[in-house]
Amino acid sequence: MNFNIKQLPSLILVVGLLFLSSCLKETAAGETLDAKIDYHNLSDKYIASVLSRIVVSSAGKTYRERSTEVNQLSPINDSANPLIVYQGNPNLRTGFRHDLFGMMSLFSAQSQAALNLFVHSNLTENNIVSKSEYNPSTGVRIFGYENVDGNWSIGLGGFGSIPLPWKKFSLRVGINNSYARSVGFVGSERNNADNWTFSEELTLAYRFGRFDTSLKGVWSHNKIVNSLGSSANNTATNDYGLYWDSQISLPLNLALESQLRHTSMNGYASGYNYDQTLVNIGLSYSFLRGKVATLRFKVYDLLGEQRNVYRNVSALDISSQETNIIGRYAMLHFIYKFNSFSGNVSASDMKNIRRGPGGPPPGRF
């Protein structure tokens, strides 16, 4: 539920409250356990608009970690595999996670410049992680569960755009930087993994009449520092990208579009460092009154070089994985824009509702 506390020409304050609760009781090893797991989700929200330009919101959540299953609390050993034994911990404490999000949005109607900044953070108390001990004489490894503190993250990002003096050109800058600490156990030894991520982009756009084009440069850096082990466990990757997108409107309601995107990945595990060039070309035809319907034929990955590689980082390991994707292919799209709303509401009215009071006008920045 939300409460509109106060509304003035320069200030809008909204307070919201959400509370969810549920209980779970399960049977393990043929016995009904007395352990009761309660899941609570308590959220609060504060939104303020100062001078119709600044929006700040925060949300805090407290809940029992959903990963806390009965088998993690049960003192009964699960020894389906004689060499791997899972042992519950009835003394596990409730995990709490707290989230905070803030956003600021500024727009100048005179200069058509826009600035959007955001910050987010979270903190987990009593996080539940697995811990193992190995007995070399018997060859048995026992897995258990333990509460740890120290898992938190913070991020800062945003984007800004401004038209250049030549008017047909505009410049956009985007940032997304974050830091995260993950605590876990490698065997029975505690490890703190510090994950630094920096992602920056710069875009130059040109728009004149029937022709739109943009050139974007992207750089991403990821640095991992582990407290356990040698410096060889600390790795860094760099991703570079250069993207060129263009579209030209042709006679007879036709439009030709193309995307040329070159990326380079460095610092990954052997076999995952590569360069790729992605080329997409499409032709579309708009029809019906107001051009609300569009028929588009588009060919993707003309050179057949696209790969899908991602990296997963935790306190336990660093892994690089590649997933299968569809190679070179073509698609026929049909797009229909619904521009009518009930109650004589126009599309611009709906955009204003989504944007909220004092936000920047819709469009590309």
Count of helical segments? 2
Order of strands, main sheet, comes to 9-10-13-14-15-16-17-18-19-20-23
What would you report as the Rg, rounded to the nearest angstrom?
27 Å
Structural class: mainly beta
Apparent shape: elongated
Number of strands: 23
Percent helix among the residues?
Answer: under 10%
What is the average of the pLDDT values? Answer: 77
Plain-language structure description:
- The protein has 365 residues and is mainly beta.
- 4% of the residues lie in helices and 64% in strands.
- The protein starts with a strand and ends in a 10-residue tail after the last helix.
- Mean pLDDT is 77; it is low at 2-8, 49-67 and 349-365.
Question: Which terms would index this structure?
Answer:
eleven-stranded antiparallel sheet, elongated, disordered N terminus, four-stranded antiparallel sheet, 2 helices, 365 residues
Topology of this protein?
Layout: E1 2-8, E2 11-24, E3 27-28, E4 31-32, E5 37-50, E6 54-56, H1 70-73, E7 77-81, E8 84-87, E9 96-108, E10 113-125, E11 127-135, E12 140-148, E13 151-163, E14 169-186, E15 189-208, E16 211-226, E17 236-250, E18 254-266, E19 274-287, E20 293-300, E21 308-313, E22 318-323, E23 329-336, H2 347-355
Parallel strand pairs: 8-12
Antiparallel strand pairs: 1-2, 2-5, 3-4, 5-6, 7-8, 9-10, 10-13, 11-12, 13-14, 14-15, 15-16, 16-17, 17-18, 18-19, 19-20, 20-23, 21-22
